[in-house]
Design brief:
CATH topology of the largest domain: Methylamine Dehydrogenase, Chain H
Shape: elongated
Mean pLDDT: 88
Helix content: under 10%
CATH class of the largest domain: Mainly Beta
Number of strands: 38
Strand content: over 45%
CATH architecture of the largest domain: 7 Propeller
Radius of gyration: 25 Å
Low-confidence stretches: 421-441, 443-448
CATH superfamily of the largest domain: YVTN repeat-like/Quinoprotein amine dehydrogenase
Number of domains: 2
Length: 495
C-alpha cells in the first residue's frame, strides 16, 4: 500500500461558518490561546502578570469592585476604582498604588474614558482628559485636576477626544467642541460649537483627517477644522457598541450588532469604505455585547476584543486581516489600555473584575494560572471525501522560543465523530489540568529551537482527519506552529 504525504501551512485563523471540508488548508475549526502572526503561523500567546508599579507586584488597586478605568499618561499607569462612596484615581509607583489626590473624586457607576492631547505644542504641555458619563469632564496635568464646564444643561460627557486643536466631548446625542486651542472654552463667540448628532454617541475616533462618530444606530463622520466649516455626514446605519472603536492597520474598527466593522479611508478625500471583518466568526461574535472591551496591540497588528473572560484577537498584516483566534483568560477583563513607552516599547494593561491590574503580553502564565492552549485544524480530505484513508503519521512544524516544552497531538476523523474522537468535549477548553485526562494523546517533548523532525505516530481510518495540538502550559516556552505534514495510505472508495 502506497504511503503519501500532504503539507498545509498554519494560516487563516478560525473559521466556524464554512462547512468543515470547505475550510482552506490551515484554517482552524477551533482554537484557544493562540494568535495569528503577520508572516504566518499560530503562536501560543504570552501571559499576563499582576502590576502595581513595584518590581514584584503584590497589590490590587485600593477600593472595592472591579477596576473602572485604566490609562497611560506620560509613561505612568493610572487606574480608577470605587470605594463604596466615590471613585478615586491611583497611580502605579515603585511602592505600589498611590492615590493621586484624595480631594478629587468621581461619582459611582461611571464608565471611564480617557484621552491625552497637547494643545500648546510644547513637550510638557500634554494633558489627560477624563470623562465617565456621570460627572463633568476633568483635565489633569500630572499634578492638578481642573473641571471643564461646557455650559450644557446636563454636563456629563461620556466620551472625549482631541481633534484638530479642539477638545470634543460627547454628551448624549451632541458633540460639544471647544474653542480652538482652548479645551476649557465653550463660548460661541470664541469659536466653540455644539453639533446635534441625532443619535446617542457611543464612540469617537480621529482617523484620516476626519472624526469618526459612532452612535447606537449609525456611524457619522465630522469634517472641518473650525466653527466656520464643520460638516457632519452620515456614513451608514450601523451603530457601534460603546468602547469598542479603535484605529489600527489604516482603518477604524468597531463592534456593531452585525459583527466587527471596518472603516477604511477611500482614495477620494473624505470618503470611507465600509466592510465586515467577522464573517468567519459571525455566530461567535454575537455573544459579544455592549459591555465588551477593546484594545490594540500595534506590534502584532491586533485588534483585541474581550467579553468577560473570552476574547477574540483579530490579526492584521498591513491593512489585510489574516485571521481571528480565540482566547480564554481566568480573569474577567473590565477595561484596557495600551501605549508606546519612552523606549518605543508597546505596553498593554487590563483592569480586572477582582480590582487588580495586569500587564499583558508578558511571562508565560495568566497571573498564577497555567496557560491551556490548543488548535483543531481543518479536516483534510486529500484524494477526495469519498476515499477512505489510513492516517499513519503527523509531523508538526513547530518553533520553540525558550526551554523545551511538552505538546500533545491527537488525530480525529470524520469531523470529530470518527476514530479517536471519544470524550473530546470533556477535556478541551475546560478546567485546568483537564487537557491530559484522556489517555489517547500522543505526547512528545520539543526541545530544539526549530525543527520538524518530531513524528507522532497514529493509526486512524476515515475519509478526512483533523489534528489537535495542545499544551497545558506547565512549561515556560512560547511556541509557534508553522504547519503540519500528514502521512497516509489511500484505501478504498466509500460507496
Amino acid at each position: 500500500m502506497s504511503l503519501e504525504l500532504e503539507y498545509f501551512p498554519a494560516v487563516g485563523g478560525l473559521n466556524q461558518e464554512a462547512p468543515p471540508l470547505s475550510l482552506a488548508p490551515g484554517e482552524l475549526v477551533d482554537v484557544a490561546n493562540y494568535e495569528c502572526l503577520p508572516n504566518g503561523g499560530y503562536r501560543r500567546i504570552f501571559g499576563y502578570a499582576l502590576f502595581d508599579g513595584q518590581t514584584t507586584a503584590t497589590q490590587a488597586v485600593p477600593g472595592t469592585g472591579p477596576v473602572k478605568g485604566i490609562h497611560i499618561y506620560q509613561g505612568d499607569v493610572y487606574a480608577i476604582r470605587e470605594d463604596g462612596t466615590n471613585a478615586r484615581m491611583y497611580k502605579a509607583t515603585t511602592t505600589g498604588w498611590v492615590e493621586v489626590n484624595s480631594a478629587k473624586t468621581w461619582s459611582l457607576n461611571g464608565r471611564f474614558r480617557f484621552a491625552n492631547y497637547n494643545f500648546q505644542g510644547q513637550d510638557d504641555e500634554q494633558r489627560m482628559y477624563i470623562v465617565n458619563g456621570v460627572d463633568q469632564a476633568t483635565e489633569y496635568d500630572g499634578a492638578v485636576f481642573n473641571l471643564i464646564s461646557t455650559g450644557a444643561t446636563t454636563d456629563n460627557p461620556s466620551l472625549v477626544v482631541g481633534y484638530k486643536k479642539h477638545l470634543v466631548l460627547g454628551i448624549q446625542s451632541s458633540l460639544h467642541i471647544s474653542e480652538i486651542g482652548n479645551p476649557n472654552g465653550y463660548t460661541v463667540a470664541g469659536g466653540a460649537a455644539e453639533i446635534a448628532v441625532g443619535d446617542t454617541i457611543t464612540n469617537l475616533k480621529e482617523h484620516a483627517s476626519a472624526l469618526i462618530v459612532g452612535c447606537e444606530d449609525s456611524t457619522k463622520t465630522l469634517y472641518g477644522s473650525s466653527a466656520a466649516d464643520w460638516q457632519l455626514d452620515e456614513l451608514n446605519k450601523a451603530g457601534t457598541y460603546p468602547g469598542t472603536m479603535e484605529s489600527i492597520a489604516g482603518q477604524v474598527i468597531g463592534l456593531d450588532r452585525q459583527g466587527l466593522m471596518s472603516l477604511a479611508a477611500a482614495q477620494q478625500y473624505g470618503n470611507f469604505a465600509y466592510a465586515s471583518l467577522s464573517g468567519k466568526v459571525k455566530t461567535l461574535i454575537k455573544e459579544f455585547s455592549s459591555n465588551s472591551v477593546s484594545v490594540i496591540n500595534r506590534a502584532n497588528g491586533q485588534y483585541r476584543l474581550f467579553n468577560g473572560k473570552d476574547g477574540l484577537y483579530f490579526s492584521f498584516n498591513g491593512p489585510d486581516l489574516i485571521g481571528v483566534t480565540k482566547t480564554r483568560f481566568p480573569d474577567r477583563v473590565k477595561c484596557a489600555a495600551s501605549a508606546i513607552d519612552e523606549t518605543e516599547t508597546e505596553i498593554s494593561f487590563f483592569g480586572a473584575e477582582d480590582g487588580k491590574v495586569y500587564k499583558m503580553d508578558t511571562g508565560f502564565r495568566f497571573g498564577t494560572t497555567n496557560i491551556y492552549a490548543f488548535v483543531l485544524t481543518n479536516f483534510t480530505a486529500y484524494k477526495g471525501p469519498t476515499v477512505r484513508k489510513r492516517y499513519r503519521l503527523i509531523q508538526p512544524d513547530i518553533r520553540v522560543e525558550g526551554s523545551p516544552i511538552q505538546i500533545g497531538v491527537r488525530a480525529t476523523t470524520e469531523y470529530g465523530l470518527g476514530e479517536s474522537s471519544r470524550g473530546l468535549s470533556q477535556y478541551l477548553y475546560t478546567a485546568p489540568g483537564s487537557l491530559w485526562d484522556v489517555s489517547d494523546w500522543n505526547e512528545f517533548s520539543w526541545g530544539s529551537a526549530y525543527s520538524n523532525d518530531a513524528k507522532v505516530r497514529v493509526s486512524v481510518a476515515g475519509s478526512n482527519m483533523g489534528v489537535y495540538i495542545a499544551t497545558d502550559g506547565t512549561e515556560n516556552a512560547v511556541h509557534t506552529l508553522h504547519g503540519v505534514t500528514l502521512h497516509y495510505s489511500p484505501r478504498r472508495l466509500i460507496r
